[in-house]
Write a structure and sequence with these properties.
The chain has two helices and no strands. InterPro entries: Malonyl-ACP_OMT.
Length: about 60
């Protein structure tokens, strides 16, 4: 969760519950460890997508 918090992804869901229970995290960790784990840790990857939004302003000069 610290990594997700660092990427500002710990609060990404609109319909999320306000609190993630410890039992849920432990169960998810155990399942993930069994499926993908190695003796020295658990591999994880993240996909980073950068975006920018822009909206023209009526006062902005447009060149054609």
């Amino acid at each position: 969760m610290w990594d997700l918090q660092g990427m500002a992804e710990n609060n990404a869901g609109v319909n999320r519950k306000a609190h993630l229970h410890r039992d849920t995290m432990l169960a998810a960790s155990a399942i993930y460890q069994e499926m993908y784990g190695k003796e020295e840790g658990v591999p994880a990857t993240f996909q980073i997508i950068y975006m920018i939004g822009w909206k023209p302003d009526p006062k902005q000069v447009r060149e054609l």
